[in-house]
Amino acid sequence: MTQKKPEPTSLADALTSYLKQAGLVKRVQQAGIIEEWAELVGPQIAMVTAPESVTPDGILRVRVATAPWASELSLMSPKILARLNAGRSGRVKEIRWVPGQIHRGPV
What we know:
Order of helices and strands: HHHHEEHE
Strand content: 15-25%
CATH architecture: 2-Layer Sandwich
Low-confidence stretches: none
């Protein structure tokens, strides 16, 4: 009687399984928002903002070039939140718009 060997698991499947078991899927999806920021909010907003962090409880901190832009974006928060959260289980509940100098890393 020959025992059938299990099929190898792809790295992507193994990583997905690990993230689920470790309870990290939500955090990875939240972190993805920072990585995808420019695509999610569009070039005009991306040009004057820089996402900094997302807390485990869903608060996104975004640096904004000027106080007037911060005020304008705070009015747009519901629409931006809807875009950020579309199709994610790791949701952002609130955006904190923080006026100040934007530091961009090397491209």
